[in-house]
Amino acid sequence: MLIQEPFDPQNQGKIDAKSTPRMRRLSEWVKAQFPGLAFEITSASSDASFRRYFRVTLADRSTRIVMDAPPEHEDCRPFLHVAELFAAAGAHVPHVYAANPEEGFLLLADLGNTSYLAALEADRAGREASERARTLYREACAALIALQGASRPGALPDYDRALLLRELRLFPEWYVGKHLGISLSAAQETTLSGVFDALLENALAQPQVFVHRDYHSRNLMLTETRNPGILDFQDAVVGPITYDLVSLLRDAYIDWEEEQELDWAIRYWEAARRAALPVRADFSEFWRDYEWMGVQRQLKVLGIFARLFYRDGKELYLQYLPRVMGYLRRASERYAELRPLPRLIDEFSGRQPAVALSF
Description:
Layout: E1 2-4, E2 14-16, H1 21-33, E3 39-46, E4 52-58, E5 63-68, H2 77-88, E6 96-100, E7 105-109, H3 116-122, H4 131-149, H5 161-168, H6 170-179, H7 186-205, E8 208-211, E9 220-221, E10 229-230, E11 237-240, H8 243-249, H9 258-274, H10 283-310, H11 321-332, H12 340-349
Antiparallel strand pairs: 1-2, 3-4, 4-5, 5-7, 6-7, 8-11, 9-10
Helix pairs in contact: 4-9, 6-10, 7-10, 8-10, 10-11
């Protein structure tokens, strides 16, 4: 039996399933789930963590997914807990057929191999949304509203100030320090801390609901039965209501004309109000919350993508930095409280500051 590793330009080969202790344990565990049945295992995907995913194909061509989450690096028990919560909310998440949290193995339903990102890119011409794209985003927003409507205190960890700040600090550590090679002066650190404080105050003042934390086109799957299939939800928390929407609409991997983004945001807001979710009654206030939440996420993502390259050797994420920086500049230049941030970035790059509107 062969295991094909996730694509790696440095190593495009295959390894025998028994070539490492980890692969031997995974192979034997899968075998125990299908006694007496023939099957093959191939790579399904990997992600930005230590997790890997393999597809099990049985003789009748039915398939399952095996999550390999090495317990020294990952804990798959939060995945099991969140899967149960989200399934109860009506979300299309993978059914769990078998679990061995101690070893870090899960046997899951297969939601297919076509992500929203793949479907959207195949159907796209430029940055204008097709009818298919509008349908997929409408379904993604409907699923998000269902998840948020099932929120209840204490069911998930809080997206508290400490966690939000820890994410923000990834930006000066990994993007500024490692990627740009710049050490912040005391004055620059003070400026950045002031922006961080404003972002934290806004995030914590927003209505709090279930938050997936990575609700975007790579973690949403195009399925034959019900869209979207939802993956990678193990880090879910209770946090700001705009977080997942801005993750979806200001996606690091694909972008749209701002007019289309605004249209989707308005449609979400209207549907959320009909569902009695605690969104702001005034859309302009909701949009401000959305943009500020986006800036927090974009700072975090810039830091994470830089860390994935410099610490983990995952170069492919560097190509997305300009898009994420574009989102960050566009939003932060609109608000007086956040405008020190793009000015600080201009200092790093030596750019002349652009003229910006005030809100």
